[in-house]
Amino acid sequence: MPVQAVSDRIRPGITVVVPVKGRVELTRRLLESLEKSAVRCPEPAEVVVVDDSNSPEAAEHQESCRRHGARYVGGPAHVGAKRNLGARLARHDLLCFVDSDCRAAPELLSQHVQALRGAPSEVAAVAGPALLAQEGQTAISRIMNRSWLLNGHHEDPLHHERMTCAGTSNLAVRRDAFEAVGGFPEDSPHPLGGEDIDFGLRLTGRGHITACDPEAVVTHDATSTDSVRAVCRRLMNYGRSEQWLCLVHRQRRRFRLNPVSVLALTGLASLSGPRSTRGRRALAVPAVAGVLLGARTIPLLHGERSARALADSVACALLECFFDLGAVVGAVEHRRPDLLFAGFEMPDDSAYRRADDRS
Question: Which of 173, 175, 177, 190 gives a 20 to 30 Å CA spacing to 314?
């Protein structure tokens, strides 16, 4: 659905759009931090919260919005549709997207405004880093700090001059460029995951640039990775979303040795043939699993040699298998068996690393 302004009287300033479902206390903390950041902003700033929580939580969100001067609107379940709705309701010509489990630094909005106002016209967006909060971490969130699959590009704006696509936990965009590319997708089969990558690729595809500002900082709360259940749910969803990205951006689809697919085929092969050999063939399953686990664990060590680092890396590798399971589920959902051994190739932003980060 095209994203169009509800009014032609768009004024200079910045509108922060926050998609929400649940997370009452986290959202309250974000709104409090944005209220403080707005005071330091050199231009008018507003916050629009788009929520699809149930009735008790929705009422709490409305109260938080009243307390901190934000606008509240009920919205759809799809996070892309929420962001698009917030953009349509925005009063200003700059848009800023921040996730509800983040907190804004006092200078966040002023940094985004100054970066976009001072940039050439081809710079349509500015990405800031989302630094993982150190307080309140559990053993699981500490372990999953090693996972690129979960943390992805969150800290890349610290090290890059620009990016092909950036996460929407901390992204400011010129409104005219946002509308020109149609905003975020609303037709993806999963309410969360992949919509920020798709948006970034379409923005870049139109000749726009997403610059990075290491001073425009938000802090990403650890609660989204504080339990095994939360980690598995997120990774499953990301795996399913990757298969949608493979279909939408076919040029970035590549062969990937999905461990879950490999183990499934190994198990099926062990069951075939004469019964007398099935027991020996079944030994291939744990052998293959061990090789695959080792191959995934080694990069997660990051060169560390301690027993704790090894244990954390093995645990992280095991949990990351839920991403592979999600990819298999996605292939089945799309009725595309060819996706069982396919993955999405993320853009290579290495050419845009800052000089002081290059070895």
Answer: 190
